[in-house]
Amino acid sequence: MYPNILRHPGPTPIPKKVELAMAENMISHRSEEFVKLYRETTERVKPIFGTKQEILLLPSGGTAALEAAVVNTVSPGEEVVVVTVGAFGDYFVSICEKNGLVVHKLEKEWGEACTKEELADFLKPLSNIKAVFATYNETSTGILNPVWELAEAVKEHSDAIFIVDGVSGIGGVPAEMDEWGIDILVTGSQKAMMLPPGLSIVAVNEKAWKVIEANRSTAYYLDLLSYRDWAEKGMTPNTPAVSLIMGLSAVCDLIEEEGGISKTAERHEVMKNMVRAAMNALNIELLTDDEYASPTITAIRTPKSLDLAEYLRHLKKKYHLDFAGGLGRLQGKIFRFGHMGYCFPSDILQAVSLMEAGLQDFAYSFEPGAGVRAAQDVYLASLRK
Amino acid sequence: MYPNILRHPGPTPIPKKVELAMAENMISHRSEEFVKLYRETTERVKPIFGTKQEILLLPSGGTAALEAAVVNTVSPGEEVVVVTVGAFGDYFVSICEKNGLVVHKLEKEWGEACTKEELADFLKPLSNIKAVFATYNETSTGILNPVWELAEAVKEHSDAIFIVDGVSGIGGVPAEMDEWGIDILVTGSQKAMMLPPGLSIVAVNEKAWKVIEANRSTAYYLDLLSYRDWAEKGMTPNTPAVSLIMGLSAVCDLIEEEGGISKTAERHEVMKNMVRAAMNALNIELLTDDEYASPTITAIRTPKSLDLAEYLRHLKKKYHLDFAGGLGRLQGKIFRFGHMGYCFPSDILQAVSLMEAGLQDFAYSFEPGAGVRAAQDVYLASLRK
């Protein structure tokens, strides 16, 4: 009866409008109806990526799209740089290593971002780097890497292409792929894009296409050239995730209704600030500094004196509030408050209220209401702008 | 307003119960709820595959699962045999060749099946074959290969593993993976499995797992070992297609409600016979003989004197009846009447009636009602059994 309040970094809640769109009558992926759906929808995704490039839709999770970016551009034995600031950067390293690449790892403390200067210094002594990879929004730590600056460092200090994992950011944060000079940008459906998992979205610019054309990949399912060829006909090389594409069209409706992606990104910025203000008011520490804090997910340190696992279990069991724990080396040290996609300031007020109720149950020392009040202040200030 | 009557070989219509299941509240793929869903659902899929092996669920189209079967078991430069009786056999050849395998192609006329003797004769002079691939239900021609016999030929004449593409069959035809000796069996969601595209289902037996463990694959997303490891925990290595798995659970409900997969397969057998009887009564030729005719899809030759493309366009435009055309070398020569998944004898009567209406519009010479009557006779006889 009680709905689970899913405040995870993905999968995230699905809007009713999207659920209904996905329940539309099935159509053939070789029909005129599909071509129209595909063309219109990919066109409408372009502003969300900040690109004029063709949008490719793969019937797969985000991991497959990241692997596609790797195997289509770099061959075994070639050198790449991976900027890793958390678990998903490390994940990228694993994908590269499994595929036989020589990986130079620019590793940061978990909770920190990578700056332009750091990447520039790292690239200077290296030659022969074919590609530089970075995570835009690191889901494990709640960090937004300044990829617009990292792109500059890549251009200034190498001929490499710059590949960005946008999985938990795109749809909730600003993205200007073309302007910033990202060569391949990838995201998945189940995070800020408000869809169930199973669709990945990829954009590739001319520089990267040249690399892909020159590179000999053995991948069949993940062959981006075949996706490009078929996209010209408004179709995909194999059966696409038709219902998710119907849902994606509804997602575009919602974002356009809100006033476009810049407005949607503003809402995420407000939610980020609400969560951060609330935690400060509750004397609960955040993992990251404000400067590079993610607009879609906040990593929160264990409230003092609490058993984190017990607190999270309690919140879920008694209040149906479902947060995600820490990943890897941060397991047991932080929890993650997802505020992406179909999530609103009212949801932040709700979650903070329930967090406070749970803190009272654990006799945590704080002024009840302080967190909610701080979040409200941020919200109200944003409305007065 | 008028619903499109989708009589394609996939994607196929989605049952309302499945649509609603897929619209359930999203859950985390690392939650207890998911583990329960995953464990129960994969257990219930086993009878549909005729296996006691673990069922693996990949968030991908069927093509990716076919490629997974290839890249996990065979390394570049190694030799395989591909039995191809149509477009999807050829597709398998392409996947193998792109991945650098040496392919021995056992090619049959489109519209014919491959027999045990033919495969045995083909295998005898070959040594060093690592894997034999065959399509169970060839969607392009409406042929059901006797894979139970082909499996015997593989065991008798090689040490190879036997990999079967079950994509448009499984869920609508008998499958006894363990009893027949299929080592890897693969299917997709959007055909007889009554789901939207985007989920593939794979089962692997002990013999094939040994080959996979010994084989060094560079695939990350399609690494079957990682799926096996995570399946032990009731999870998947990366974000699964959660909503499709919710839908798969509802599909299992429906098949169990019908009396189990053997009853579901009987219904498909009746529909096949209805379509074939109707076409015979209308003097419209079938591509295949009865012996190996597919229970899920029938390939029908162009009715005499008709312009096929014009007839199909007319059926869709005037009667909203949507058939699939021919693929590859059969384009313009046949059309394909899909009767798989959420399709019932009543749907066959409807489609044959509308086909007859269309034939009258084209002044085709036939006895109106003859096709429907013949289909009814088959249907009524099946009910009397």
TrEMBL record, chains A, B:
Question: A GO BP term, please?
Answer: glycine biosynthetic process, by transamination of glyoxylate
Give the top-rank taxon of the lineage listed in the UniProt record for this protein.
Bacteria
Spell out which residues are annotated as carrying N6-(pyridoxal phosphate)lysine: K191
Q: Which residues bind substrate?
A: R336
Q: Does the keyword Transferase apply?
A: yes
SUPFAM superfamilies noted in UniProt: PLP-dependent transferases (SSF53383)
- Annotated Aminotransferase class V domain residues: 22-308
* Recorded GO MF terms: alanine-glyoxylate transaminase activity; L-serine-pyruvate transaminase activity
Q: Which Pfam families match?
A: Aminotran_5
| UniProt-listed InterPro entries | Aminotrans_V_dom (IPR000192), Aminotrans_V_PyrdxlP_BS (IPR020578), PyrdxlP-dep_Trfase (IPR015424), PyrdxlP-dep_Trfase_major (IPR015421), PyrdxlP-dep_Trfase_small (IPR015422), SP_NH2Trfase/AEP_transaminase (IPR024169)
- What PROSITE patterns has UniProt attached to this entry? AA_TRANSFER_CLASS_5 (PS00595)
Cofactor(s), by name? pyridoxal 5'-phosphate
Q: Which UniProt keywords apply?
A: Aminotransferase, Pyridoxal phosphate, Transferase
Give the protein family: Belongs to the class-V pyridoxal-phosphate-dependent aminotransferase family.
Q: What does this protein do?
A: Soluble hydrogenase catalyzes both production and consumption of hydrogen from suitable artificial electron donors or acceptors. This subunit catalyzes the tritium-exchange activity.
Query: Subunit arrangement?
Result: Heterodimer of a large and a small subunit.
**Could you tell me what this protein is called?**
Tritium exchange subunit
Organism for this UniProt entry: Compostibacillus humi
